[in-house]
Amino acid sequence: MPDESRPPSARTGTTSDAPKAGGRRDRRDPQDGGGPARLDATDRKILALMQQDATLPLEEIASRVGASRTPVWNRIRRLRDQGVIRAQVALLDAEALGLEACFFVLIRTAEHDPTWAAKFIAAVRARPEVVEAHRLAGDIDYLLKVQVRNARAYDRFYQALTSEVRVQSVTALLSMEQMKATTALPIEL
Q: What is the pTM of this model?
């Protein structure tokens, strides 16, 4: 039986998104052979609660979903094993850390070969100020979300990235106001 006196996040001992054997996380539901994990109403309630506060004690989660601790713990463990729950982390306030400038960086490239892509991906992943990176369909090839102290810090980032990886064009858009930010995914209950 798990140690229910501590929240699920404190018992895991890790917040990594480490891949399983074979180099990737197993996100498939073993019951249906692939695709998204099948979730019942209790799974969804557990996930909704954990998205709001992952430090909730197991006993509180169980009480709120109307189940006992051990079955809830088993569900949480299964959701982790399936990759539905990737990590449990602390969300930090960028402004409190002095990281007040958020830039959305649109990158176009004429290069699309695997060697260039691997170099670009490595360069992006090596820079902690890149908090999100996406490969896109359409006119823009990549979108980066870059969180830095100010415009000078962004310029240092830009100079370093473009000196390491050749790109066709870069457009930086400064966010004037964040109107919504959440890590919670929409879960239908």
A: 0.78
